[in-house]
Structure formats: structure tokens, C-alpha cells
Write a structure and sequence with these properties.
This is Glycosyltransferase family 39 protein. Its main location: membrane. Its EC number is 2.4.-.-. The protein has about 500 residues and is of the alpha/beta class. The chain has 2 domains: about 300 residues, no CATH class; about 140 residues, no CATH class. The chain is about 60% helix and about 10% strand. The protein is built from 20 helices and 9 strands. Helix 1 runs parallel beside helix 6 and helix 8 packs antiparallel against helix 9.
Amino acid sequence: MGSGRVGTVGAASSVGVFAFVLGVLGSWVPSLWYDEVATVYSSRRSIGELLDFLRSTDAVHGGYYFGIHLWGSVFGFSEFSVRLPSAIAVGVAAAGVVTLAARFSDLGAAVFSGVVFALLPRVTWAAVEARSSALTAAAAVWVTVLLLVALSSRSRLWWVAYAVVLTVSIVLFVYLATIVVVHFAILLILRRFRVSMLPWDLAVLAALAVALPFLRVVQRQAGQVGWIPPLDSNFARIVFEYQWFLGTPMFGVVFGVILVAALVFTVRSRERPSSEGTACIAIALVWIAVPMAIMVAYSLVKSPIYLDRYLTFTTPAVALLGGIALGQLRAVRWLPYVAVAALALALIPGYSSQRLYGAKPLGMDFSEVNDFAKANIGPGDCVLFGRAAWNPSSQRLVEDVDPSAFANAQDVGLAIDAAESGQLWDVEKPLSDVQLDTCTVLWYFTDRERDEVENLRLTSNDKWALQPYHFEDSSEYALLSSRGFRIDSPVTFDGTQVVRLVR
């Protein structure tokens, strides 16, 4: 192995460790939110139950759920544990960014690319998210590295490896199929289409053929994303702020200034960028633009599928642009380091907010409420799960975080068990049908108190109008009161209210 390759491996490993450490810090603090509870609740099931579930409901996340099932069977399903694979994936992706960038630039610029990737707010968010987002970034960058290795190697084994990783990537996250179009463009940009057309075509066809049964199941379950809101006038903000600079607009401003400054330096130097540098810029721009264009076009013509977080796999391309720009600033020796420091400072507010207890959308608090239940529900106490204004299922998500917290309670409200029926969430009995004769203490999990309408818009462009709610004035309490229950002690969290009733 040459010294250059050794240097690249060492630099990639170091940046990968840095990205992992930055990502994993505080990952155990935020409460699990709706999507993460879906991960935990689905992945806890037996292999048979999980297969039944994926056949009917959520195959698009099947590969990820199986991975977390295996991971959790060894390391458990705590907040730290289920998020740790994402932090590891961020480190792996950062190493891949350095490796990819080093094929087009010197090692210093490649390291800049990896550091920019690690600092991107979308990446630091993905590191504390128990979903597949971080893994999609790792898959996208390494399958692209494999493509470049296959293009420069005479061994057909690299094309086999490329086909295998491409298949795994598509099964991991179906939108990664758009990377095929990006790779087609790479062949054109590198002028390797005529030479490599046949092996690339065969590898892609093999990957798509193997993934085809999965793609058909996903297509049949397309209704699972029927909740995604249509594009509207907020789209520009979603793209230029939320998509890569989530919750940290100043980071986006600093990043933009770096790009402009690099362009000015390049023009003033009157030196043409190297062909490798130009190719890397072209690849990065295509990687950013093509998946987004496909998703936006489909959303406008067919049905909405675009979400900011679904494009996490384009963050390596953004990092490539940032690394190239920082490399250009080296005309003033200290300037790129000042620029990186400015990015790091701009990241602090968003990074910190991502690691607060109530960091997740709508301040979802399922972990905290689960801890409360474990500490307070007594043996034989009854539990019921009501609704919340934003929740399409029920507040049973509190139990789904860790069922052991409710092990000694009487569950009097369950109508249909999700694991047995192959569905994502359990179904509750109508409150009027619940038998409460054996209950002297009843814990009711419901919405928090609100005096007026709360209008919210999430980064996903979801709009919520949360209506006023007072448990004492609700039809639920009227029914429970008619059965002899009175409120003993209500406790309100960020989004959930737990009411202890006695009779």
C-alpha cells in the first residue's frame, strides 16, 4: 500500500472518529419521538411478527428494522442504544467523504470535506435519530466510492461489490435508487461512459433485479406516505435552511459566504481549476440536484413524497462543495481554519438544541413519561391510553418505549395488539366499552392542557392546529366520572398529561 493511500486511510479514520464522537455526544438525552418509537416498537417484535408486519404495512423500513432488531437483541433498546448505529453511520460516512474527496483533490481539501460533513446540522441531527437517515448518507457515499474504484480497476469483483452495495442501499431506503441517475452522470462527467457502460449497466440491472420484489411491495404500500404534505410557498425555506442546515440558519449563511469567497479567490487567481476539481464540483452538484429534482417532480405530478430529512443522503455532496471551497481559501494560509471555526461556532446553538430532552418534534416526551410510569404506577393499577391532538394513534406510544414500565399494571384498554395483527400501532377500545370494575386506581394518559389554539409548522412542512383541551371538561372525564372516578393528581409533561384517578 503506497504512502498516499496510507495517509488517506489514516485521515479518513481520524475524521470518522471525530464525526462519531461529535454525533454520539448527548444522544441519550432527547426523549424518543413518534418515528423513533415506531423503530423501537417494530424492532422489538419477533422475526415472524416483524415479517408479518412488513408484508402488510412498512416494508420501506424493513431492512433498517431488521438491523435494529438484531442490534437491540444484543445491546437493548434504550435511547442511547437505538441511536448508536446512527452515530456510527455518521462516522463511517465522514470517512467515506474523505476517501471520496481524496480521489479528486489533495488530502488537506479531502479532510476539510470530511470535517464539513461532520459539522453539517443535518448530519448532527441524524446522529441522534433512531431512523435510517444517517445510514443512507453512509450508503450513498460508499457506493459512490465503489463506483469510482470499479471505474479505475480492471478487476470485475469491484463491479460485483458495487452491485451488492447498491442493492443493499436501495433496500435500506428506496429513495437511494435515485443515486443510479447520479452515477450515470458521473460516468458522463468522467468520460467513462463508453468504456464502462456495459459493466455498469450489468451491475445496475443486477441490483434492480434483486431489489425488484422489495420495490413492488413498497409500491403496494405507497399509502404509508400519504400523510406527507404537498409543496407550497414554504419550499424555498425548506431547501435552503431545513434540508442541510436544520435549525441553524446562521450555519447556512456562513457556508454560503465560504462558497462565495472561494469563487472570488478562484476568479482573482486567474488559474483554471484542475480537471479533477471541476469534476468533483460537477459530481457534487448533480448529487445534490438530481435526487431532489426527482422527488420534487414526482410530488408535483403524482403525489407528495418530498421531505427534507429524506435527502440526508445528499449531505456528502454538500460537504464535498464545502471542502473544495475551503481548499481554495488556502491562498491565505490561516483563512480556511478561521472559516471552519466560524462553521463550528454557528453550529453550537442548533447542535445544543438537538440534544435537549425535548428536542424532538412538538417536544414529544415518550421516554420521560415512560420513566414516570415506571416510578409511579403501582401493582394492580389500571392504565388507559387516550389521544393527543397531533397523535394519529394513541398515547400508548408511552408504553411502547419500554413495556416493562407497565408490567405490573392492568391494561384494560387494548382492543387489537399490533404485533399479532401485523400493524404498526395497537388499537384501543372505545372508552365506553372498557371494563373498569376491578380498578380502584386508574392512570389515564392523554393530551396536555391548552387554553387556546396552538398553530405549529414543522420542518417537514406539516401544519398543526392544536385545539384547546382541558381534561376536566372532556367527554372522557365525564364518562370516567360517571363510573365513580375522580381526579387525584394530574401531571403535565411537554406534550403528554398523566392523570391519576381514584374511586
